[in-house]
């Protein structure tokens, strides 16, 4: 040991012995190293799976919030358009009230829906209801908390209108099959053109004048028939809007249920 300490006499032997012992040590320690590696790998895999699932959940929540944000953005834009429409006609309106559509009649030959306002909000039978782009319909049945609205494209609905271009008056009735309107009793030579805008005339004591109703999309004339067939596409988004505007016209207060023009009443009973 003294010689080894002083003169490193057995360093060569020690080096040779290390070459032999190291592989043995590696083999002996191999099972333990493998177990440690496997445990670490499984733990890492499990942790990654948990993190991945957490990220997926967070992603779904964020997508859901994004969809809700888009819906709220569209709803906000529609409400702004409704209020802008009311401001444009504020001189003929006593007051307005935003209402939400609760349900829609699924009958293909009827055009009705239910709103979340009733007598508790001073809603009355015959009250007009409009959208951001034009007239939607009128209230036909009133309950304490909800009311039923008859849409202008219902077959039993009639609406006094006039051509915005020249003031020609007409009666527009609903065609529920196509969700459109038709102008009645217009002669073949009537001064009505495709793309003419129809607005409410104010006659009939229901709808205030000047509100958009629809645009003429087709005119069919037949010399053998006394009247032309004139088809009108409503300007209001009758099958898309979730909110609408109840209006109180200033020409008759809120007691207009019995105020109906003779033409409208006659067509409504056809």
What does this structure look like?
With about 270 residues, the protein is of the alpha+beta class. The chain folds into two domains: about 1-90; about 90-270, Rod shape-determining protein MreC, domain 1 (Thrombin, subunit H). The chain contains three helices and twelve strands, in the order H-H-E-E-E-E-E-E-E-E-E-E-E-E-H. The chain has helices at about 1-5, 10-90, 260-270; strands at about 95-105, 110-115, 130, 135-140, 145-150, 160-165, 170-175, 180-185, 195-200, 210-220, 230-235, 245-250. Strands 1-2-5-4-3-12 form a six-stranded antiparallel β-barrel. Strands 6-7-8-11-10-9 form a six-stranded antiparallel beta barrel. The model is unreliable at about 250-260 and about 260-270 (pLDDT under 50).
List the main descriptive attributes of the protein structure presented here:
alpha+beta, 270 residues, six-stranded antiparallel β-barrel, disordered C terminus, single chain, Thrombin, subunit H, 2 domains, 12 strands, 34% helix
User: Helix proportion of residues, in percent?
Assistant: 25-40%
Q: What distance lies between the first and last C-alpha atoms, to the nearest angstrom?
A: 127 Å
- Count of alpha/pi helices: 3
CATH level 1 name of the largest domain = Mainly Beta
How many domains, in number, for the residues? 2
Instruction: List low-confidence stretches.
Output: 252-258, 260-270
Structural class comes to alpha+beta
Major beta sheet, strand line-up: 1-2-5-4-3-12
Q: State the CATH architecture of the largest domain.
A: Beta Barrel
Q: Find the count of extended strands (DSSP E, 2+ residues).
A: 12
What general outline do the C-alpha atoms trace? elongated
Largest sheet: 6 strands, antiparallel, barrel
Named CATH topology of the largest domain? Thrombin, subunit H
Radius of gyration: 39 Å
Strand fraction equals 25-35%
The ordered string of helix (H) and strand (E) elements is HHEEEEEEEEEEEEH
Per CATH, the superfamily of the largest domain is Rod shape-determining protein MreC, domain 1
Q: For the residues shown, what is the average pLDDT?
A: 78
């Amino acid at each position: 040991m003294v010689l080894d300490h002083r003169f490193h006499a057995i360093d060569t032997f020690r080096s040779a012995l290390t070459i032999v012992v190291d592989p043995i040590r590696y083999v002996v320690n191999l099972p333990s190293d493998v177990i440690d590696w496997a445990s670490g790998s499984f733990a890492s895999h499990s942790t990654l799976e948990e993190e991945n699932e957490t990220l997926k959940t967070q992603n779904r929540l964020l997508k859901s919030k994004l969809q809700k944000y888009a819906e709220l953005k569209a709803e906000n834009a529609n409400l702004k358009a409704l209020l802008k429409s009311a401001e444009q006609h504020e001189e003929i309106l006593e007051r307005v009230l935003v209402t939400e559509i609760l349900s829609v009649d699924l009958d293909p030959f009827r055009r009705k829906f239910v709103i979340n306002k009733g007598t508790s909000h001073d809603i009355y039978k015959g009250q007009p209801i409009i959208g951001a782009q034009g007239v939607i319909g009128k209230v036909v049945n009133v309950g304490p908390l909800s009311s039923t609205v008859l849409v202008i494209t219902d077959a039993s609905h009639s609406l006094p209108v006039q051509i915005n271009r020249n003031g020609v008056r007409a009666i527009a009735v609903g065609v529920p099959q196509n969700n459109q309107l038709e102008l009645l009793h217009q002669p073949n030579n009537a001064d009505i053109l495709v793309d003419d805008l129809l607005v409410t005339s104010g006659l009939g004591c229901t709808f205030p004048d000047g509100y958009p109703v629809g645009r003429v999309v087709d005119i069919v004339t037949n010399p053998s028939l006394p009247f032309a067939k004139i088809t009108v596409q409503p300007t209001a988004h009758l099958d898309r809007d979730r909110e609408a505007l109840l209006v109180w016209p200033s020409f008759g207060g809120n007691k207009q249920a019995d105020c109906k023009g003779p033409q409208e009443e006659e067509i409504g009973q056809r």
